[in-house]
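ESCALATION

Customer reports they have been waiting on this structure for their group meeting. Please prioritize. Original submission:
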Amino acid sequence: MVTQQPLATLPVPPEVLALRGQARRETTPCGGGDIVWHVWGTPQDGMPPLVLLHGGSGSWTHWVRNIEGLAAAGRELWIVDLPGFGDSASPPAGGDADALVQPLAESLRALFGPRQCDLVGFSFGGLTAGLLLAAHPELARQLVLVGAPAMGVVPQRQFALKAWRHLPEAGQIAAHRYNLAALMFQNPALIDEQDGLALGLHVANVLRDRMPRRRLAHTDALARALPQVGCPVHAIYGRGDAIYKEWIGALEGAYAAAAPDFRGLALIEDAGHWVQFERPQAFQQALLAALGAGAGAA
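Update from on-call: job pushed to the front of the queue and completed.
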């Protein structure tokens, strides 16, 4: 049971501190500051860097349960704090996924030159990745979308979150626990497991979210962007994703209609929206299989 203390003072879990200490830190310019990149693993001959984009109100820690497994599989991981989140500066203009396209494109060119990456985007990061490759398709060898919104298949929003900034500290804790259960997890017991790892990460991330008025995720913006993405496109979702609920079955057809080179949808059982945290081994297996199949057929 996590101690009910003020949100801003929840301790950073030791395993997160250890992971952060193992990373190499790189920066690229963004407006009046920098985009911060956290790098694990070493380059492998013939293997592009694996770039991971986190979800809304998040940071690199959305991938905290996948870093060791993916690095052990031989991938060099570049996990960004997207502009406006985590340790990164806000984008020069705008407050939604489209405002991140140009800073990220310039960053990837600065980091990798003409080399392509394998690009993976979770939730808001998936929408961002789709918009990025629609505008700059040369940047990635393939694209994997994880729990991505904005595919235009749900008739109305499938969840409601509680406002929290106006509440006293105890009320904020309750609101954040409610929001995690409503949106992120199929099994809400995970919120308090590992000494409250999920809650602690979520709290640290939302306190540093400088882009709270995002709206594109509730449109069909990703579906409209994918026709311009020519590389192999894969999708991975938790079967219980709260963004889609009973509409999850419509996703495969929507992707097939939108992406010229759609390679398939993997649904992870017993998982919700934050699928890579809830079922890390199953997620990593699906991700590595998708990346391997796409690379072999590209």
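Sent to customer with the following note: Residues 7-297 form a domain with the Rossmann fold fold (CATH 3.40.50.1820).
Escalation resolved.
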